[in-house]
Design brief:
Layout lengths: L1 H5 L5 E3 H8 L3 H13 L3 E6 L2 E6 L6 H12 L1 H7 L6 E8 L10 E9 L3 H15 L2 E7 L1 H11 L5 E5 L8
Parallel strand pairs: 5-6
Antiparallel strand pairs: 1-3, 2-3, 4-5, 4-7
Length: about 170
């Protein structure tokens, strides 16, 4: 459940929805939610009749837990072994189930940049897959292509995981 809330802090969930998503009883989910809320790792609010939970990004342990979750998924390894050696990437997004906080064997990335060496990317992805024990898929777009396709792509819950510090791009 930590993956759901701490990979993407904008993810929310409510008791019955989480029970279905994780294929667990509502009682088991309720116990975990109560523990996490009591520890102030999750915060909640009512939206109509539902109590909706989200990560408490102000908690002092939030950055540490988020870092652990990212290491579990392998994002840090991918950035170090793949992204920084590609050419001129500007932003990298996580897409698909993992971006929604659902554990998956597939790690889908969107790389926005220029002069990306696709042959080299293929070799690095093969190596990174062994490091993270996940299948890695990717989509490479130029800044112009990204701008054109952003409305459609954002429906896949894009989660920005890396951005070039010296040249941030605007959507």
């Amino acid at each position: 459940m930590l993956l759901k809330f701490f990979l993407n802090s904008s993810n929310t969930g409510f008791l019955r929805g989480l029970a279905v998503e994780f294929n667990e009883s509502t009682n088991a989910i309720r116990l975990e939610l109560n523990k996490l809320e009591e520890a102030k790792l999750l915060e909640s609010q009512f939206e109509g009749p539902r109590k909706v939970f989200r990560a408490n990004a102000k908690h002092p342990l939030f950055p540490d837990i988020q870092s652990i979750v990212r290491k579990y998924i392998g994002i840090e390894d991918i950035i170090q072994s793949v992204i920084l050696h590609l050419g001129n990437p500007y932003e990298v997004y996580l897409m698909g189930e993992l971006a929604q906080g659902i554990d998956s064997d597939k790690l889908n990335l969107l790389i926005m940049g220029e002069n990306i060496d696709i042959d080299y990317l293929n070799k690095l992805v093969a190596k990174a897959q062994k490091l993270v024990s996940r299948d890695i898929g990717y989509l490479v777009l130029s800044p112009e292509e990204f701008k054109q396709q952003y409305p459609r792509l954002n429906q896949q819950n894009l989660l920005l995981i890396w951005q070039r510090e010296e040249e941030p791009r605007k959507k």
